[in-house]
Amino acid sequence: MRKIVYLEDPRKLLETLGLDRKVDDLLKLSEYFDYAGGIFLPKNVFDESTARLPLIADFVKDLSNEKDGLVYLRSKKYYLNFVLDNDIKKLRKQLPSMIIETTDVLDGLKNVDIPDNLESKLVVGSILDHKKHYSLCMLNSVFYHMLKHDLDIDIYENVKDSCIKDVSNFYTFLLTGKIVEQGMFTSASLDAFEKQLILPTDTPKTPSNLEIIPAARKIIIREMDHPIQILLFAGQLLKCDKDTIVDFVVNPLNGAAEIGYAIKSIYSKLSIDKVKDIFLLKYSRYDENNIRDISLDPFVPKQLKNETGIICNKRLLILDDNIFKGETLYDIQRMCMSYSTSVDVAAVEKIMKFDETSLIKYDDLLIKPISKLRYIGNVLAEIKDNNLYNLIKE
User: Which of 7, 38, 82, 215 could form a cystine bridge with 198, CB 3.0-4.6 A?
Assistant: First the structure.
């Protein structure tokens, strides 16, 4: 199976970001990411790379999974079980435990000279990848919890700050090979996750707790976390919208959790003044409890309601991980139009071809997203019709 990138030549997009000298390295780097955004290496290369990094060798091996002569550096410790409700107690302990363990390993790398070769950097990058993922899981969980329950605001601020730092740390390492400040979760934040942020399905219903949804299912299943695709998207956004600054990227959580903070950190690291800040909300058309309202209030925790005022009369870019008919983007755009008259939409991935009934058509998007084609038979027709290239094996 293949996927087609509806973007210009990746080399040109990286050059748009000012990465001329790093283009070859980044393009080579992309060969080691699987479709989901995970890093993989041939078994012999992985063994050689971990041998050069004895301090983290055992830890990385425990994060990996070998199959058909390849070692995938996202294993069960990355894809924690966020679906089966009977695993809630295990999950409550597992995520904080992995955060602590990964934080300690990264602290130990501060004074270590990382071998100057791509494969060793990928091994180290896999640890940053896990820490980033755990932080995003925490942010999703905290934000969702706050939609229905009170929470110490200091816990939210700590989780949000840690998440921003861990996303930035990963992309800084991707671009520079340097590890910078990582997110540090307080014991209060980790304890809150273990004790109250995941409500078991047998929790008694009370007047303040009438809308308990199977808890683990609501933490996070992120769909778009492929760093090279996000990097190319940052180049595409800059190329297509180079004359104006985005005051706020409006970032719906869950699948799109990483993207807003990722592109902001990419621009910041490259000294590009493009995105000022991120505005979070928790919205999905698949949530049957969502109300088709013209207000963002139901999708922002009541403890953060005063934050909605900061987007008034600002330039907004609603950024989602993927798009099918555009219904989610349309809903959020309609709500945001109550706050600002300058509201654009963009998406990183396009699931399939649009039909004439689409609410937001592909050609109307500010940025053309990546197309995830599921049928090989469509590939040649797509190339012929759209003059596409850069076929990448899925």
Answer: 215
